[in-house]
Queue: 4 jobs
Job 1
Amino acid sequence: MSTNISKQKRDDLLHKIQEIRTYISTAEQDDNTACLLSYLSDLAKDVNGKKYGLVFEEHREEIDEVLATHTPVLTEDRDLFIENGGQMNCLIEGDNLASLKLLEKTHKGKIDLIYIDPPYNRGGNDFRYDDNYVEKQDSFRHSKWLSFIKPRIEYAYKLLKNDGVIFISIDDFEIGALRLVCDEVFGESSFVCNIVWQKRYSRENREAIGDAHEYVLVYSKDKVGFKEKRHLVPMSEEQAKIYKNPNNDPKGRWRAVPMTAQGYRPNQMYPIVDPKGGVHYPPEGRCWSTLETEYKKLLAQGRIYFGKNNDSQPNTIRYLSEVEGVVPWTWWNNEDVGHTDEAKKELYAILGKTNSFETPKPVRLIKRILEIASEKDALILDFFAGSGTTGQAVMKMNAEDGGNRRFILCTNNENNICREVTYERIRRVIKKEGYGASLKYYKVDYIPIDERMYYEYADELLLHIRELVELENGINFNGNDEIAIILTDEELAAFTENIGAKCRKLYMGHDILPDEEQQAIIAEHGIEINIIPDYYYRDLQES
């Protein structure tokens, strides 16, 4: 019988705490003894705290302090607007924690697919925490990374649809910690798989054993739902090698598939006679995979194969041309989805430089994720957008299958990455490939709220509402017939006098009061009314 040593130690500590509490309780009571008893209760609570899971030294970032006293808003850089038809996509420049806080206001429970490639915390120049790179010798290295990543994963969970899915690139340095974070936020039952991606095509000789892979962790709120909607992936030539054409079948390459199924079904246990007169029955514990009527149809069509000598157990013939794809598995080789060198060459071909971003991902890797986990109208979020590979992959996928997927990219502008790499890559790809895609460029700003009442800064929030309306609805507001923003009584009067037939949603300033006639006109057209800025900043109004 095993002994729980940790429990014994906890029980011993709790016993000692109780003895101290009993002793203090018998002493003369004053403010000091009351404080000591309170401290003991806190100690007991800590001893009885979490016994398994994610435990680390929590740190606060500079952005945590900013968000404690300010609320984030968006400002559009209209000079960077790309209008090229198609779906409206968004690029947000700023700390991604602030961006996620804003996206919670506009996209809570609305994102179909999230892909992120966060810092790997290798202990060099890949993870910056409060303006300083975290080195290997930093004793709080992993705690800082966990303090950084956990709130962002929590926002990701809030943003995903109930059947949404997240794919997270990571390597050996933080794979264990990331699993614990995701298990805690999503729940262990939401773990889908851990994909191993072969990132190199040549040997790495600098280490004792060459580093050739990274991981892509996959979680879904609804694992069963994701399995049902998950798509097959194209078959590789390596997988297709089993399809041959030894008899020069005019329908092309084929393979023989055993015509049996597990279990016993009385109406699928019929005898089958091969061309040489041999009689065959299903093996023990199995039955034929089709009814006899269906078998006879396949036989008449020449779709039954009895082996090279026409005397073997029956097989059905499956043609390569009929295979829609294969179930994705957890080993992704670089021949199918690309490698790091390919990613750098892609970026260089577009921008003529790669030194500003050292670790891009290949378009084929992200495209494989889109093939598996996105419908044609999916909304995709990448809040560690980096070089913009996700945006390019979404546009490429749309061009290939006629999809209308949209993307939202978030990244900081360290070393001008957002403006000079992420944005510039998207702009050049749209121009070069002629993709029907448009892009809004937003920057995160902040409005101070500390020691101010909501009504004191509500009008400041209104100055940034148009951007949130555009972000939420995936539109360019100018010239849009379906959505209106009303901030003055004069605008309301003009709107009710000339309501367009297409208008479906109205965002109206909090100090605007429609009269009965105006209310009736709006109701007659079935227009949804949202009071701003309360609609987006209700949490501030209630605090």
Job 2
Amino acid sequence: MNIRQCISPRVAGLFPLAVLSIAATSFAATAHWTHATPFGGNVVALAQAPSAPQTLYAFARPGGLFRSLDGGATWSPATGVPPDTGIEDLVVAPRDPQTVYALTVSTSGRSLLRTRDGGHSWLAIGPGSPVSVLAVDGQHPNLLYAATSLGLHRSRDAGDSWEVAAFAGTVITALAIDPLDTTTLLAAVRMSGSDDANRVWKSGDRGKTWAATSLVATPAGPYVDIWRLVFDPARPGTAWALSTAELQGKPGLFRTTDGGLSWSLLSAAGIHDLAPSPDGALFAAINLGVARSGDLGETWLPPLPLSSSYVASPADAISRLLVSADAPETLFAAGTEGIWKSASSGATWSASNQGLLALGAYSLAVAPAGPGMVVAVAGDGVFRSSDQGGTWRRVRSGRDGPQPRVLSAFDPRRPRTLYGLGSDGQADQLLLSTHGSRDWRRLPVPFVCGGDSVCDVGMSAFAIDPGNPDTVFVGGSFYFHFVGGGVFLLRSDDGFETWQSLTSPPGVVVALAIDPDRTAVFHALTCKGLFTSGDGGATWRKEGSGLPQPLCGSLVPTLALDPRQPSYLYVGTAGQAVFGSSDGGRTFSAMDRGLESAQVAAILIAPTSSARLYAGAVGRGIFRWNARLQRWLPLNDGLPVKDFAGVLALDPRDPFILYAGTQTQGVFRLDLRP
């Protein structure tokens, strides 16, 4: 389920309208955002240039295409891929490291692209039907074969023109060329309407004629496909086939040692890719890590299938695997965390992500005291930096157990204690880390799902009492099968042992702010408007005259209270920019000049000055309020604004430093010091 937007108390006490005399400053006009992000990303395609092994290409989702010219040590983006295009596989020409073929999927369908300049420009060269596998003849670089849904296609001019070579009108699910004898091809063909649901065929004359082999995948129900064929580069006649049969609880790995005349079924499951080495070893990408076989796949280390508790190295879900063309002991692996490299035949692995800017940064928080600490939820993990984003360390991964998707607040007295919101797939969870975001445990909030398939718990607001940080509040909504649903607003004063249910204002509370001078005064924002309580949440009155109705739209509104002048409140809306109040929330007026029709997802104020008020607008970037001009001025130099969705944080220790999270390029930092 989607986690509702949560406003942290640190962020929810943000910016004041009290800004009455800010002069436009020259440094704001020249301030430049710079990358300050962890490297990595979900890499789904990886290829090496056979003629120049130091050249590699990788595609990350999100993030785009990257190239390395130093064997994976550093990466740089190749920006010529058309927008909204996802690459599923990459093939580098055998003799030209600048020529790359990309199998893509986009809003217009599947296609085949080619670049001749290392990824800067691309040309569509597809045969006219969706391509699932591309194979290039290593001895004749212009000879290509494409497995499509309408048969096997062949090109003799590097993709400029195509012809149907075999199996016209039939789905080809896998294809491979023997590197020891490129006249030999294997193809997996789905023969609809016959008993041969998916059969492997062999050609010994570059696809002119074909003969069926004995390997047939015949399902009882849905299709069972052979989806990967791999030749051994060291042993003539040896090849492997990976099948989707394992999805039905059966092993999916087959092997032939006689050129396809006979196939044996191997007891191995959970394999996502195979990479045979010229030195005779066979490597497999598995659910978590890489396995190695020294006997053609008969046995594996670690043993396959893996037990649910075993994690191989590298501890990542590996999707693509390759053996280096110039060093059989060197492996590259593509996983959900990025690219991994081993120089020891898989014995040890290290990340090889320098420059791979492909992580989405979905939440940010900066410690208010103690050693400087920035925490980011990026990709599927939690990262921490102690040098303002210069370097990062992954401290938590999705496989480690509960972890947040939203960083709610640091404890103002304990700089290594951090709250967050996560989810178990049904119910949102309130999480706590006491070791600087490394460990996370679920707090016992009363509203949880106990296995009921029709159950939903959403937590949308969190706050810490500024006068007593041991007191916390959480609000949201619930629905239980046979019970019904409702909203909740909870308070705990005793370290989460017990929770007191408070009266909730009408609607789901999406943001909660507590007056630091009068801690019985609460301001709660719902889609129905702003409500204020003067008795600690026992009763509520409707406030917010002048706010637009309804408040919620494509995103929920955000609320900020100025901790230095608590009578000043700000509301960011889903399409009408910012509204401000100077009378404790009773009346609001529009602050939209420079941000007309903007979706404002974040409002921040510097803790040392009510005059420095910032707004984060989805797809438009970050702005600073100028009271003298009565308008918002952009602070977007260097920031990919179309990639910005409102993730914004300010360093309370150094309030001239801002951090922004982007959807595909990670974290950026802005230094506004004069």
Job 3
Amino acid sequence: MRHLTLEEKVGQLFWFGLPGPALAPASEKLIHDGKVGGSIFFARQGSDPTTLKALTDQIQKTATQRSTATPGLIISVDQEGGHVQRWGEPFTPWPGNMAIGATGSEANAEEVAAAMAREIRAVGVNLNLSPVAEVNNNPANPVIGIRSFGENPQAVARLVAASIKGFQSQQVGAVAKHFPGHGDTDVDSHKALPLIRHSWERMEQVELVPFRSAIKAGVDAIMSAHILFPSVAADGLPATLSGKVLQETLKGKLGYTGVVVTDALDNMKAISANYGVENGLIMAIQAGADAVLITESYHLQDGFYNTVLRAVNDGKISSDRLNDAVRRTLTLKEKRGLLAPAQTSDDAVRSVGNEAHRRLAHRVGAQALTLVRNRDLPLKLRTDERVLVVGPSYSAKSTKGLTDIFTALGEGVRAQHANVEEITLERSPSKGSTAAARILAEKASVIVYGVYNAHKYPEHLALIREFVATGKPLIVVGMGEPYDLTALPEVRNYVAAYGYQSTNLLGVGAVLFGQSPPQGKLPVSIPGLYPIGHGLSY
């Protein structure tokens, strides 16, 4: 703190995104000039471990060349597992939080987080923007859903703490998000500004429970949400910009002493469209944010830095507030070895996607499979009876050692019964695709229909109803939130998989044919039909 200049202190507040897999000259200059405290990686950085490692090594080398007093950078990524997983193969495809929630196992949560941390640490990433700490209790939620561990606050709290323990045991910081809770919204803050009207008493009983657990577990950082909470913030400001939420509630009432980082300010309309990015930056820091996240806006990053520097020089951001933010950031960097960062080992890169990690991912994904409704399982078919698998064209293909002819869902079924045909349909399938599926269904004895949130896609709803009307055994495999039965009460067999990764789907075939009894339990209720904890056996 004594050695950093005012300009370098302001730089510690910014976590910037990068435009590609190489360090662009403009980004390199920002880092070299001490105007960056952290960085966030996305899919645009690519999924090649060697390239990623070279990039993180170059970033850290550039950061520490400025002076002996300038620390290295926090390098972060959204590697949550499930469908928010920035890096694909060869990184292990992990089941998401709701799948882990369906297993109910803290050991699974910790083990998956530790393995995930080993892979991202191997390429020089030192902070994972995970776990999601929301309690997903609104079926209409457009942005959290299967990213949450579930609907029960205490269960979510247990699994959040276990994940934090797993990440941080491998020297990768964890980030609980999005405070004070995005689980009961029906608006996506990427597109608009959500509003939650719950009382403080209700929030204490639900939304805040996992965040208190995260704080007790020693989480390195907490990310703020761009959401209005009138019961907490009577100032009418969203959480990210409200001192009532960040300073008085999170740091005051909840006693949080770590880093508070904003969700993205430049590409989320909840902030950019209502307050403007530059004004939002100043307001967030004033409110108690210790780091501000700018994920894109590459040509404006230097200007954003200058905006905050002027606000400090003009007294809009006090020196006490600046020093508090920098002290919290430097404490985190000291904890994670970033005051003098060492380069990662070439040997570590080879651990990415190793066999032990893949076995773990598939085991947890299989344990999560939940038999919600059953009329025809386990299947007992003659060899001449054909199974039609309606697979998701948007899911990951099968993993190492398996063919790419079938999706992971089809491959898992074919492992149990040789006479299998598969057709893939998009999330919103065309008339031609559904017509082709009808033709194949006529020749099938059994239909296995994998779909992502069928209750939101009328084309799938209509086709599923047609297949039900044939009287043939139909098994719907839900790969999103398990709310499909609210729109499809006539479906007789339903398996919740909680994701469309290969790790979620390869085990479905064994469940359908009785080779692996279903173990999962619903971590959310299905309104009017099934409570939390429901799950059938044969």
Job 4
Amino acid sequence: MLEGCTPFPAEFAKRYVSAGIWRRETIPQAIARAALERPDSVTIVDSNRALAYSRLHAEAGSLAALLSRNGIASNDRVIIQLPNCVEFATLTLACLEVGAIPVMALPAFRKAELEYLVALSDAKAIAISPEHRGFDHAALAREIKSRLPTLESIFSTAPADGCISIRERHDSSHTFGSSTGDPLDVALFLLSGGTTGMPKLIPRTHADYLYNARESAAATGLTSESRILIALPAEHNFPLACPGLLGALLVGARVVFSQSAKAADLAHTIEREQITHLPCVPTLAIGLLDLPQSSRAQLRSLRVITIGGQRLQEPTAHALKHAFAHLVVQQVLGMAEGLLCYTRLDECEEVAFTTQGSPLSPSDEIRIVDSDGVDAAPGALGELLCRGPYTIRGYFRAPDRNREAFTADGFYRTGDLVRLGPSGNLVVEGRIKDLINRGGEKISAEEIEAHLIAHPAVSAAAVIAMPDPLLGEKTCVYLALRDRESLTLPAVRAFLEARGVAQFKWPERVEIVAELPLTNVGKIRKAELRRDIAVKLAAEAALSASGTVAQ
């Protein structure tokens, strides 16, 4: 396996191969084989064009040749920072075809995140859209290329200075799916939720990720007749392979990419493309509930809405079913490191609306342990540990983190606090990890604190989650300032922008305090801060309500 990665132990690999869980094929080989049955079927659509399987494979083969001509070869890392579009699919497949390893980076990432990823992965290239949502990604990529010598090439979805355009037609005799490779090799890098500073790289192999996608397609009822809408950033594990793009390609379903997550735009797309499956986070689902009655009729084709990223609240689940009686509301508990739990499509509402599902694979192993690592009593709350045929055994080049995140016998410590319900499904009650879950996007408190402490006015910083009715959580920062200094929320956000921090990570509230509460060993009492902000928000809500009544 690639240097810096932790392979599955030989006895586990043998077991998974013998059971037929891992197959002797790479991702390009599996997709090429699936396409032989439907070469003329439309498989990928975005706002500009649609591709049949035959054309998808031709473009992926052409781009594979382009990558090779520009020195991209087996095990080279390529940062993929593309919005949801056809080129995301074709370039990702091209990388896999030549054996290069895509590193999935969000379009929202800026200088701080991208420089870190390039340096950690030794990336040889980056793929960008030159301008996206008003930001000059080409200029940023050129700046990073000038600073980091490993980065040799910038691939772009349109012509731009210093970039290699991937939209130009490149003649090629390369046949997609013809390259050979080891299914047990690393196929791509996903990103962790970044619970300890910047995100870690998650190595997923061809064999385990194909299994991930195939079984997810079965769990969500995705077939060759289905049409799935990808509105979440495609680089995330959820829209990429749960079942997402990869699962759809394997079963012959149609993928429709959207760069808008606005409920009204999604409703139009669902009606126009006759979408049957929608993976989304609770925020998107709530947006659909807020649609006017006239727009709700546009969702008639929708059959399954699979909600993950954060726990779906039971009242929201009931509201969805009441508003859209034809819908199956499905929950998924998942992580890019591996384990996936789905509620079944035929699950009774009492279970489907109150639990986060059961493990995807019969070979998944889970434990629920107390703070001492001892198995918790049945039904008791504890940390979820897991291992299995699609759960990694270690992050890339992170030996210290691996010692913390994995047990000696290979279980991954998820940091999620769960209990096992009477139905056999898991119920998520919270988490140990110090991060903010903002509408499904995970924000590391430690990462933002590291930036803020560099501000000349700040003597100490604590970043916490504060409750939000729409996004679930937002970011609040408590700051202790140096003598005679002052700092406002706009100034904090401007500071983070100047440091190249992605906008979704910026705090949405600042609390200035004389000092931060500390434990007897000098750690910040974040539980106390969370209680403080909850009290303040409740008081503000009560004041607002009384003012409304008075009017």
